[in-house]
Amino acid sequence: MPKRCYFHGSCSASLFNLPKDVTQREKWLKFIFNHVPEYYKKDITLCAQHFTKDSFQNWSQFRAGFSQKLLLKEGAVPTIKDDAGDCELQPTTSQQVTSSPDLPSTPTHVEVACQVDIKETVTVATKRSPNVRSVGTQVSFRTLRDIHVRSKGIQAKVSCRNVGTETISLPDMQLSSTPIKGSIFRPSKRPRLLLEEEDDNNDDEDEESDLHVEPHDSTYNPESVVTEDSQSVLDPESNYMDNKYIVFESCLIDLFGSCPVCKTKCAIQKRQMGTFIAFTQLCDKCNYLRQWQSQPIVGSTPVGNLMLSAATYFTGGSFIQLQRVFKAMNLQTIQYSAFRNHARNFLEPAIIHKWNLEQQNIFTQLKKEGAVALAGDMRADTPGHSAKFGSYTLMDNETNKIVDLQLIQSNEVGGSYHMEKEGLKRCLDKLDANGLAVDYIVTDRHPQIQKYLRERGITQFYDVWHFEKGLSKKLEKLSKRKECEVLKRWLKSIKNHVYWSATSSVSGPEKVAKLTSLLNHIQNIHVHNNPLFPKCEHPDVLSRDRKKWFQPGSQALYKVEKVLNNKRVVKDVAKLSHHYQTSSLEAFHSVILRFTPKNVVFPFIGMLCRLYLAAMHQNENCQREQAITTTGQAVYKFVFPKTKRGECTAKPVKTEPTYGYVKDLMVLVLDEVCLDPAPYVEELQSIPVPPPLSSQFEKPSKEHVISQHVSRFNQGEAGTQHTVLLHSETPGVSGAPHMTG
Fold this sequence. Notes:
By secondary structure, this protein is α+β, with helices and mostly antiparallel strands. It has 24 helices and 18 strands.
């Protein structure tokens, strides 16, 4: 006797016995009897209808028809008591067509998602070889048995939007050009909201300014494809986690080429929009109709198109490069204009919203710890003193998390030299506004930063690496002189001594005493007159190489002493940081390069959003541990740094980074932003955007600029006249006349 569900009594292919685990079994029994009975049948079974879809391991495969039976996850518990309807959950690939008063009640042959909701069903599949799995189409016996009459509702012609529509001809058949009524499948509209493009002429193009872009809308309303209730079954997280595949068009045509009822060749209408494709299959013989779409719809936007834009943006990728890859494969994708519309309306508002929430959580945690120790530094988008953007970052030294990040455009402060001070000022103002106290801050030795922090009453320490780098450059230049060749043997030791002097001291005078003791040490004198550091801490070793020591009164000793006893050097040594440095912040600047490469020009909001993405990546992965092997040994890799000139160095390898922030952003876009973008866009619009750099210049006409263009290699009349004029104005040239008068 076949097993049956305890509640419904009907047979089902997906029935589940009581679990063997005692604790789990008691939970099932409480669900069935509202208590744990003393006596009960051991062969009680429940069908899949009493479990949520999160309880199954293969829910997506079952719905797509690639699995015949559902599999429960370990620890799953039934939670749904629904006595209505049949227990069987049929696999499906899309949504079912809604009813329409224009269509007759008998017989109905319109099929969407390859399923008709009738209890008595049979699977009709295309015959294939034994090695190829066939995905069946479920059609009722009544549909196969009844006389198929084409309904007037199907034949009615209604004007509807058709994007990328193509009717495909198949051999030995008569094609039907009858359009399908669009009102049956029109989805409910979500509120559309478009932002104005940031106009910065040639300076603020998002990726490649010379890219030819065809006009293309980011939203698509496939009116004759989607059902009215299609949005009600969409789960943003399941859409994100659902596996996606590359499917060849010829394979889809083979799938929809023949009628599953009468095996007759069918007319196929194709609709394509970016990565979205939909097929309408109509049989002229039995009037069988089926509609299928490759991906769900959110509002009026195909989910696949939106997810492609989001995945490219959130991972710091370049859409232009991705488009080239797709073109090389002849893989259909959206246009660049659609990507920009997605970014403006959905992606960038989501990034701003998530960063604001994450930053507030960081502020809340830091307030509990009291005053914080920070590291600060600025990064310019281009080297030199002609940078357009400067981003100033404050990092918590304890956790290496980004506390705040400010973006400054050069025309806001009168030049790129002043961007660092303005960035620090905005960061500290935001910390004050959120009630966060600063204990001290570690920075480089920028003069404007020193003065500003002194006026603000904030303790400042200098990063040792920046100080040592400047000092080593001076000594390396000095060692190239003939009389200072002995200094070359001491360069590495002096560098190590600078780090040791800073990290082994707790006060400024002690750091100065240790650094200046170097002048005695290089003369083989290891006892000093300073009471803070009276003697070298290394063991006494008798050296046999007298040539490595500096001789008293020599020219080399005089020049080295002049560098080490420089007034500014001695002053800055006292303020070297003895604990935290800005090395982690410098590493974060390398992370920024992955999101905002310096060879690409971004608009202000685009640059800001990509900086926030880099900050979220840093905050999620800042505390990764060192990777270990299966035997428990730490993993290292060998590198050859350019600064060490070929010397091999062992570098610890950390565990693989995680990208949870990308998933959170994807779900946020699909679940909230794309359905109602208005509040998120308002949050983005609250950010003040400076005018573009080109706004300070008067834009000439296009014709005037072209008329002034003369190539230096032009061999025409204009180039000849220009060359003659130059020769006539150049005195002293052989054979050239001089200007008179």
